[in-house]
Fold this protein.
Amino acid sequence: MIDLTITEALAKLKSGAISSTELTKAYLDRIEKYGKELNCYITITPERALSDAEASDARYAAGNPLPLDGLPIGMKDLFATKGIRTTAASRMLENFVPQYESTVSQKFIDAGTVLLGKTNLDEFAMGTFSKTSYFGAPVNPWQMERRLTAGGSSGGATSAIASGLAIGGTGTDTGGSIRFPSAITGLVGMKPTYGLCSRWGCIAFASSLDTPGPIARTVDDAALLLSAMAGHDEKDSTSAKGGFHAHTPLDPILGNGKKLRIGVIKEFANVEISADMKKLLENRIADLKSIGAEIVEVSIPNILDALAAYYIIAPAEASSNLARYDGMRYGLRVEGDDLIDTYKKTRAAGFGEEVQRRMIVGTAVLSSESYEVYFMQAARVRRMISDSFNKAFEQCDLILCPASAGTAMPLDSDLTPLEYYALDLFTVAMNLAGIPACSVPAGLAGNGLPLGLQVVGKRFDDMRVLQLAKHIEQFAGVDNRPTKIMGK
Ligand code: GLN
């Protein structure tokens, strides 16, 4: 039952071949078996899951199921869930139980899903391997004995979904945190257009970049999840009007005489990528050409400066967003000699090293001496990148590029902070521009591990992004069934 995709499971639930309770129990059993080893959940909610499932079965029995009724999902532990501990993988919020529900998790409730638990992540979503989690890193189920990273920051979600410990789930992508972990676990990860999914109740990292989105095993599944997550929200001032509604299976965008111009980014040509990635990119481009795609070279002149701009803007926003954790209202409090000492002790104990580093950098670049030379300069680069994408989309319909340079690395890789930051090279520009980008399995590398390609579109072209991703998925034919990946 674990190997069913969302689309398959929904069909079986509808026909009555399986019940949500059966499906949910199968997932809970598997969480019981492998959850500790994979460390993909921070909090498991079996009682809630079973009562959600029971309610879902009743709706099916009454003949009025909701769009995603009965699907057992994992919620990234950055989304506030009413009455359920929400930690952001930080000691600061280790015992925080929200009194409200985030918009995205509420939308999943409204769509009838079953909550299995809250998935692990990098502390406050800052990281690339999920190693900055206060609760330890999740493990990639591919070649599990090698203890590879499942990526970050949504690494708990990708570990859980790839291993069959959730049928799908949520991530957030500020600089690549949906796409990178999805790419190295053989999953589909969609970062929608900024504003398409509400940020309300999602613990803030960098508000102008934070983008909730779905992670699933197929493109159709991701499209279904996104349909439930998206939509205007008055509680989020940056929420876009309109929404996203997919009918699955998604319609082909190529073949049968349909033409499409696919851009490849000139400046990425000189970036070092693995030989496997290079080959898969070439192969998939050849496949797409064979069904009517025209390949055009486009230029995003400042794209290689995106990393520098991102690592100024994101920490700047984080330093402001995380100022609220002062031990006064909620979260950890370490009593000091006086007010200032309490702040210091609380924040020193509550935040991990990477989060502290970001706040120091962020505070520095916002200081009056640095504001103009760092922050404003980064903001200008951001604008130029966004303008260049707009220009590029006059020459092409969608863009194709790698989602990462290579396959999953061992969790014990000893990288410097800057080396971790450099892994975001292929993903951060799309956040700066606020445009949709989907990571889709492109094939397997020689070492047997999955690699992902990224389809990028203009703002609100989320549907076409997914449609092209689906063609790539079909050509790549990666078998990502959990029992196949784990051999059990
Ligand atoms: N790796 C990036 C960072 O550490 C992206 C994180 C994210 O998208 N949440 O900032």
Q: What stands out?
A: DSSP finds 16 helices and eleven strands in the chain. The chain has a mean pLDDT of 98. The first helix runs from residue 6 to 15. Residues 1-488 form a domain with the Amidase signature (AS) enzymes fold (CATH 3.90.1300.10).
